[in-house]
Each structure stands twice: as C-alpha cells, then as structure tokens.
C-alpha cells in the first residue's frame, strides 16, 4: 500500500496501481509532471486519475439531467434548456454576440413589458449578471 502525502489532500491509504507504459508515454508523463510542478510521477498519475473520476461524475450528472429534461412533457418544458460544461473556464461567446444581444434587447423594448437578464447576454460573472438584472429591471419600470 501507498500513503498519499499530497498537500492538497489529506493522507489516505490506497492500493498500489501498476502501469505498463511505453518509453514515449513515460517521456510525456515526465514532461507533464514537470510542467505542473508535481513532486513525483506518482502524484501526477494520481491527479490524472482524480480528474478522470471528476469527468466521469460530471458526465453522469449531465446524462441524468438530460434524461430528466427528455422525460418532461411539452407542457412541463416551457423553456428549452441545454446542458454544457466548461472545464476551468467561463463560457465563450460567439463572434458578434453583443450585436445579436443588442438586437434582441431592442426588439423586446419595442414589444414592451419584456426584458432579458443573466449570463447568456452581457457577461457570465456574478457582477455582470447582477448588472444585467438591474438593467432589465430599470427597463421594465
């Protein structure tokens, strides 16, 4: 058995895993471990396994969420939703996103009584969402 002494994780006992790697794979792992400033190849492989476990859990959550939405009737599904995962990053808007957003906002202003707010329009951070909500509220008053 090996005891993990990573500073990010409490020491835990775990079973030893054995890998058979080609020289190219070893060279790649050594390079990645150096780039990430990992104390050892074992620590790097542990981190990779943890990342894979997180990805599998997220994939399971995504599949369950999609199955739930697929099970809704048309009456229950008033708004079409999509599930997306952005690993360690904010979502990126497409080119000319703000122009399209401005077009939507001006069309809704002409209708009156409807405004949009949230991360889908003018920024994904919490401050941007708050500002978006305030702006939409002002437009409706």
Structural topology:
Layout: E1 2-3, E2 13-14, H1 23-35, H2 41-71, H3 97-111, H4 126-140
Helix pairs in contact: 1-2
Can you tell me about this structure?
This protein is mainly α and 141 residues long. It folds into two domains: 2-71, no CATH class; 97-140, no CATH class. Helices cover 52% and strands 3% of the residues. It has helices at 23-35, 41-71, 97-111, 126-140, and strands at residues 2-3, 13-14. Strands 1-2 form a two-stranded antiparallel sheet. The longest helix has 31 residues, at 41-71. The relative contact order is 0.06.
Compact description:
The chain is mainly alpha-helical and 141 residues long.
**How many domains, in number, for the residues?**
2
Rg (C-alpha, Å): 23 Å
Q: What's the overall average pLDDT, rounded? A: 80
Helix- and strand-based class?
mainly alpha
Instruction: Give the overall silhouette.
Output: elongated
Proportion in β-strands:
under 5%
Instruction: Give a short account of the largest sheet.
Output: 2 strands, antiparallel
Q: How do the strands of the widest beta sheet line up side by side?
A: 1-2
- Distance separating the two termini: 66 Å
Number of strands: 2
Helical amount: 40-55%
**Poorly predicted runs:** 1-5
Order of helices and strands: EEHHHH
Count of helix runs = 4
């Amino acid at each position: 058995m090996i005891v993990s002494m990573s500073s990010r994780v409490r020491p835990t006992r775990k079973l030893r895993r054995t890998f058979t790697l080609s020289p190219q794979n070893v060279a790649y792992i050594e390079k990645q471990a150096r780039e990430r400033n990992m104390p050892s190849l074992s620590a790097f492989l542990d981190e990779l396994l943890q990342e894979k476990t997180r990805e599998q859990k997220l994939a399971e959550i995504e599949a369950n969420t999609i199955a739930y939405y697929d099970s809704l009737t048309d009456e229950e599904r008033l708004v079409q939703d999509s599930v997306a995962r952005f690993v360690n990053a904010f979502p990126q808007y497409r080119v000319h996103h703000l122009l399209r957003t401005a077009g939507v906002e001006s069309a809704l202003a002409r209708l009156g009584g409807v405004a949009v707010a949230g991360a889908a329009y003018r920024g994904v951070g919490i401050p941007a969402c708050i500002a978006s909500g305030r702006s939409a509220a002002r437009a409706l008053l």
